[in-house]
Every structure is written in structure tokens, then in C-alpha cells.
TrEMBL record:
It comes from Bacteroides muris. One of its GO terms (biological process) is DNA-templated transcription elongation. Pfam families: NusG (PF02357). Residues 14-95 form the NusG-like N-terminal domain. Keywords: Transcription. Gene3D superfamilies: NusG, N-terminal domain. The keyword Transcription applies. This is UpxY family transcription antiterminator.
Length: 115
């Protein structure tokens, strides 16, 4: 398991597992996982939302309901079930894990979603 207090650069390759949670609860889950010592990543984007006649800038997750966690499959699976989240799987039923640095993780995940 990769602990959050280990200093890693964005360029270092890690094995990331994709967790699916309820939309708009990614930040809360990320805080719980970070407090437990896991390395998490949730790519964010700025979106403009029209609300009550005004346009506001809101920071939202790039992939709604998705969060990336570094660690081995067994730990992440048990963690997901305890946090009301599910681990995403591929077509063969294996854990959807991506080996990449933080910088290229969103692009590789988007590429997997197209398949």
C-alpha cells in the first residue's frame, strides 16, 4: 500500500485502481481515504453553471463519481466495500487498474472508457 506521507513525484508510475461512488461525494470519500493513509487522486475541471440568472464558475470532478486510489487490489477492494464505493472492473471482471503517473492518468482512463 502506498501511504499518503510518502513523497512521490507526478512522473513516478503507480498502479491506480478506479473507485466508483455516488456523484457529488467524491471529495468526502477522498478525505476519508487520505485520512486512512491512502494515496488518492480525483482530477478536477472548472465548469460554468448558470444558476438563478447568473453564471458561476464551479470546480467539479472530471469523471463524475470516479476516484483513483493507489494500492494493491485486495486492500482497495476491502476499502471500497467499507466506504460505500465499488471498484470498477473491465470486460473480463478484473479490477480496472491503470499503471501511470498522475499527469497521464485522466487521459489513459478516458481511453479505456472509449473501448
Amino acid at each position: 500500500m502506498e501511504k499518503a506521507n510518502n513523497m512521490m513525484t507526478d512522473n513516478e508510475m503507480m498502479c491506480w485502481h478506479t473507485l466508483y461512488t455516488a456523484p457529488k461525494s467524491e471529495h468526502k470519500l477522498m478525505q476519508c481515504l487520505n485520512a486512512a493513509g491512502y494515496t488518492t487522486y480525483c482530477p478536477m475541471q472548472a465548469v460554468f453553471v448558470k444558476w438563478k440568472g447568473r453564471t458561476r464558475k464551479v470546480i467539479a470532478p472530471l469523471f463524475s463519481g470516479c476516484l483513483f486510489v493507489a494500492g494493491n487490489v485486495a486492500e482497495v477492494t476491502s476499502l471500497a466495500s467499507s466506504q460505500k464505493a465499488a471498484i470498477l472492473v473491465d470486460k473480463e471482471g478484473k479490477s480496472l487498474s491503470i499503471e501511470a503517473g498522475k499527469a497521464e492518468l485522466p487521459a489513459k482512463f478516458a481511453q479505456l472508457l472509449k473501448l
